[in-house]
Design brief:
By secondary structure, the chain is of the alpha+beta class. The protein contains 23 helices and 50 strands. The chain folds into 7 domains: 101 residues, Ubiquitin-like (UB roll); 201 residues, FAD/NAD(P)-binding domain, CATH 3.50.50; 112 residues, FAD/NAD(P)-binding domain; 78 residues, Arc Repressor Mutant, subunit A; 137 residues, Probable tRNA modification gtpase trme, domain 1 (Gyrase A, domain 2); 87 residues, 2-Layer Sandwich (Alpha-Beta Plaits); 97 residues, Elongation Factor Tu (Ef-tu), domain 3 (Beta Barrel), CATH 2.40.30.110. Helix content is 22%, strand content 28%. The strands form 13 sheets. Strands 8, 9, 12, 13, 14, 15 and 28 form a 7-stranded mixed sheet that branches. A 6-stranded mixed sheet has the order 41-42-43-40-34-44.
Amino acid sequence: MERLVHLETSRIDPENKIGFIFQGKPYQGVEGDTIATALHAEGIRILSRSLKYHRPRGLYSLDGECSNCFVKVDGIPNVPAEITAAKDGMVVQPQNVIGSADKDRLSFLDKLGFAMPTGFYYRTMHKPQAVWPVALKQIRKAAGIGALSPDFEMKGVYDEIFTHADVCVIGGGPAGMMAALAAATQGLRVVLFEKRPWLGGSFEYRTNEYAEDQKLWARARILEDKINSESNIRTFKQAAVTGLYNNNLITAFQKGKIFDAFTERYIEIRANSIVAATGCIERPLLFENNDRPGVMQVGCAHRLARTYGILPGKTAVFCVGHDLGLEAAVDLFDLGLSVSCVADLREEGQNETLITAIEDRKIPFYRGWTVEKVHGKKTVGKVTLTALTGPDHRDAACDTLVASAGLSPLNAILTMAHATLEYDKRTGYFLAGSIPERINPAGRILGYEDPHAIESSGWIAGLKAAADCGARIETMLTDEEEKIAGLPGPHKGSTFVTLPTPGKKTFICFDEDTTIKDMDNAIEAGFDVPELIKRYTAAGTGPGQGGIPGHNLPLYVKQKTVSSNPNLKPTTTRSPLVPTYLATYAGSRHDMSKRTPVHDMQVAAGGKMDRIGAWNRARYFSDDRQCRDEIETVRNNVGILDASTLGKFRIFGPDALNALQRVYVGDISRLSTEKIKYSAMCNEDGCIIDDGVIVKRSEDDYYFTTSTGRAGDTAAWIRYHTRYDHWDFKIVNLTDAFGVINLAGPNARNVLEIITDEDVSDKAFPFAAYREFSTNEGIPVRSMRLGFVGELSYELHVPASYMPGLWKILEAAGKGFGIRNFGLEAQNCLRLEKCHIIIGSESEQRTTLHDVGLGFLWDRSKPGARTVGVPALIQTENQKGRLKLVGFKMGDSLDAPPKDGSIIVDEKIRGYVCTARYSFSLREPIGLALVDDDLSDPGTKLSIYEDECNGRLMSAEVATTPFYDPKGERMRM
């Protein structure tokens, strides 16, 4: 098809050709084309087949409102061809097709529609019972469209942005641009989202006059230039908003252009105020065969010509319910489209200037007429028109039917903010009733159609958004409200849905092949609420998120059930509002991990960093994965470990002790200010979820640590379990505010004595004690004497900013003792030899405090604390048949220790290995395992199966624990 070139509204470059493949054949488009527009220009009308009946489907909306134009592009299924830019070399295939889009071997299913009523498979395929498993597999194969190869690898760069704005404007049409400019004039930071590649909205392609000697499209360009000139407005084009959540959190994704550094990027933005200027979509007209390729919406036909330089067809019939349809008919006729006739659903209310223009062009015009049926085997060949008030019928030959019943406000973003929608009889729209604070609708979403009223409503919304941010705009707002009061109000729209006797293949939802007959069946079955009918018929559950049936569904239900349920609401829209790649949500493979204050020093010292939960930590300090030198340094000399990732909290106030008593199984009331208390937390089932130490710094003021994994949850856990007590306490998470150094080994005290004048002798600072002191350089230290690695050791807690300085001081003080770094793997082996457990490694979701041998921590004499998990601890204390934590040895076996997670077996699986390592201190492999309690006695033989390298069976024996220094003498040196 020959392009319309040199149109002022055009967004293509006809000189820059693009070649791509469709169904194995080469086709050509131009720069600016989408896949669908390029194929339409090449005469391709059938792009895919429908889900259920395999009916031919083609270009319909140009905004991706349904799955009609879903195709497979370079191996990626479900790509909306209407809104996806055509690129050189891309390979495009139709979907839901056996054979080709034009000749689908499953098209015979269309004739079997009578045998596939709504929900037929649930009612007909469950008897006899043996049929259902077979039928279920076939049904699941048929569900959904598009197939992804298991070997497919997603290519591209997927990025993300997390930002903040004073005002976020959703929609880059005239109302949205005016709102952004109004807010920007108040000096506010504004972010503007527009899902199309350019700003302008409903003005962008239209040639009607905005003002004397100025067209609507030209007005859009002027507003766009103003937006671009404002330094405090950040615009995201080709950026579809996918959700709106509590506290004005907006999510979106943006498609990159050919020279952008990203393919797509996820955007998350928090705004003080929001302007919703999302405009309208067209409400489909319902008639027999309304899904035939060649049937398209008004905006689609108009934008094809004005934006892409492609006439929608050779000969067209227009059947519309709004003035935009009349405007398009006149403009497209002037551009060379043969228009057989224009039918208008409305008896009155049309813009008489447009009717005069139609009559001047000798185009037959029918008031109060609609389409009854489209004829044509695969595409439109003829239409039958009928009068709404009489028996008159007319046939008109054409290859294109431009059809639209009216407009539908895109108010999904408002409903996500919990705005209520009410049906407005004048406009025929569902308009927002109550709207949450700091959300301001504008433009056509409010029913405005007059260009000046649209802009004025946008300016008002922008001023209100500025007021939400504290700007003083009272006078300006009053002036603008007086202005809009003198402009045309919300436009009276068409409320027509369908003829009283629509055809059998009148589709209300293209995605799921849902017909009006399916709707009637649902209503006859007793469903009279749109939400229930949606689920029963599947209408609106496809990838279009109800864009096509969204408005018609409640209107049709209202029409059919008006006597029983007159107050119907549209169905709920859920995020994502626009289908999004999982790759976009995942983003680039950025390591979003946290770093400790001495991360760079660890790397400089040769640390092999590894991702551990949310943190980057040093696992090794050499290429020896068994870490022998690190382990023996701690056992024989002195080592230094970065333990900053521990959870660290302050809890204070009159009821701080009560809160601790509630969640810890030990009795914290007995704790003195110079001692530490090791205890554990359990959930309601008595299962251990965390352990740590508690320090009493002064009356009603406590400092405590948790495991790294619980650092983010502990405060919420305590508040949750004290929520009904009205206790007076405060809790502060100090995890990132403090760093921790573990100084461990026989020479640890010698090093500590060098850096402080404080008495740190065993008598002055015994095991399980707590002291606060300063180093000789004045660094304040909170020190706990612990023994997690089985040697004399001190945990030194200091403000994070002091961590690098203290680390250097310790290295200098320990130089004469051969001090060296040790990492997590060495610590893991050291604590394993002492059988000190790590929650999550030696425990699981069903493991109680008793199962891991920590029942001694539970103080049964605690007064009235109602400790979390105690009832379950009572019930499970002597319960049989549970997994128990045991230690095992493998003697002088030359085998390497089994992998963590290896199973313990006899005739069946009897447990699994939690942690196993080679012990250089014991010179044999050792480990901890959870086993059935009848295997937990010392001396019991265990068979361990490791499923690696064709599997191997190893022998072990349950041993008495701890393996190393059972009396704990080395910790108390």
